[in-house]
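G., the chain you wanted modeled:
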Amino acid sequence: MTSLNPTLSRVTDRIMERSRETRRRYLELIAREGEKGVSRGTLGCANLAHGFAASGDDKPVIRSGSAMNIGIVTAYNDMLSAHQPYGRYPEQIKLFAREVGATAQVAGGVPAMCDGVTQGFDGMELSLLSRDVIAMSTAVALSHAMFEGALLLGICDKIVPGLMIGALRFGHLPMILVPAGPMPSGLANKEKQRIRQLYAEGKVGRDELLESESASYHGAGTCTFYGTANSNQMMMEAMGLHMPGSAFINPGTKLRQELTRAATHRLSEIGQGGDYRPLGLCVDEKAIINAAVSLLATGGSTNHAIHLPAMARAAGVQIDWQDLDELSSAVPLIARVYPNGAGDVNHFQAAGGIGFVLRELIDAGLMHDDILTVAGKSLRDHAKEPVLDGDTLVYRDPPAQSADDTMLRPPSAPFLPDGGMRLVTGNLGRAIFKTSAVDKERWTIEAPARVFEDQAQVQAAFKAGELDKDVVVVVRFQGPRANGMPELHKLTPPLGVLQDKGFKVALVTDGRMWGASGKVPAAIHCTPEALGGGPLALVQDGDVIRLCGHGGVLEVLADLSTRTPAAPPPPAEGMGRELFAFMRAGADGAERGACAMLAGAGL
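Predicted structure as tokens:
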């Protein structure tokens, strides 16, 4: 048995000590809730009659209370390609539940907005805030006291974190997350990237760009690049909250259906009175560490520097960016998936996939194997590859060696010796720098600042040729309290063009960058944010800024002590943004998860 990596052990011990009181309170909460027993049995007759009135043939079983009634919380809509396959899942799950004597009902739906649709437009300012709405919607769905377990149907950016935050407040119930899988591969990623940069330079038109994008995003399933959605799936696997190996099986396949059946059957086994595995006991400090390690080892989304602390807080666990930085120093980068490599998640799956990653990290002492999972005796039981033997789901060991070492490698021969998610600090605050996506010669940038207050201003300056120089682009008043902390994805092509021209370029912002942050050095999620007097509000055009991934430095080489903070833009209106003002006002800092709901609950 391999001993645990000393850095992993030290960080785990620190998180456990820091979380001692909050975790204790959380465990007491779910114990109290669990002691109430089958809540359905405590409902009054009129209450219970309302709950099964439309349940048809399932009505006698639900009425009797003799078997698990599964709540389905679904993020289905047919605009979001990743979630379109969920449309038929409830009817399938009800059939699968009956096979084992259980029942299932759709407990509720949660919103699932698509960042790919809203990027660069006003609706994107609702994106991060939607995570709180999803969490609250999950709580509403599970509040009817009709369910002894739940299946959570969600995949994408804010949806999985929101489902987790809401579900963890019902942590006495067993729950399994059920993915729907990625769309098959379309246009090669490097070609898509090439067309985007040509469009940014005005060398191709909208028709050519739309044709390229349509060839890339072409059908049902999750987008195939390794951004926040697919990083969600990696982390849920590393926490043991999926049926093993579920994440990257394409929609519409027999194997996909059998994994959903297996999740339904397994949930019926892990309720009270059986092999009890409540969500709140599965998600502990070690599971959170495993999620972070899987993210770092695979070059996952920077958005999880926000989502992971928020999910952890919902379970009473306190994790911060110093923890992520230290883990990153010990965890090697063993996967390169687009935009950090050429292939997408389908190619990653073919090379060995999640089963290979989990086994290799456990064997290297870089994951906690001794966690409570939904399906195995330990996490090692999740380091498997699902296949069909005829019509029967079986599991086999992942390949002994990667089938493509340009995409997937063992920890003994990594792409980089560390996970490449760095904490940078200095007189501009604290921020995240994803070095794993950036060529090492660009890890240090020192250049004059050009200050903007939204990404449209940056694009206008780029088109006017004003940024054709060494420059650190500062985009401020993009934090959670200012405008909901939208991703600034539209900046990726123009900044990439400037870098390709040979200029030293970096981005510094209190907003978020694309979850699959690319090749341009970027200090993102700067906290404290500019609104309220954070140091970014003091920066002026021409100030020299130094960003260094080697030394973890983010500083402006200017005296800020005598300056007055710049005035923020007026609050935005339209696209419903005014309705979310209370969430923006209550949000805490990015390092705490940028979450109004948890802050308001004192968690």
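The chain has three domains: 6-184+219-396, 187-218, 421-569.

Shout if anything looks off.
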